[in-house]
Amino acid sequence: MSDTDNTSSNDAVQAQGAAQGPVVRKVPEGDDRERMVCVDCGFIHYDNPRIVAGAVCTWQDKILLCRRAIAPRIGYWTIPAGYLELNETTDEGARREVVEESGASVDIGPFLGMFEIPRISQIYMIYQAAMTGPELNPGPESTEAALFDWEDIPWDELAFPSVTWALNVYRSGNGPRFEVIRHP
Question: Which of 49, 106, 171, 184 could form a disulfide with 121, with the two C-beta atoms 3.0–4.6 Å apart?
Answer without folding.
Answer: 49
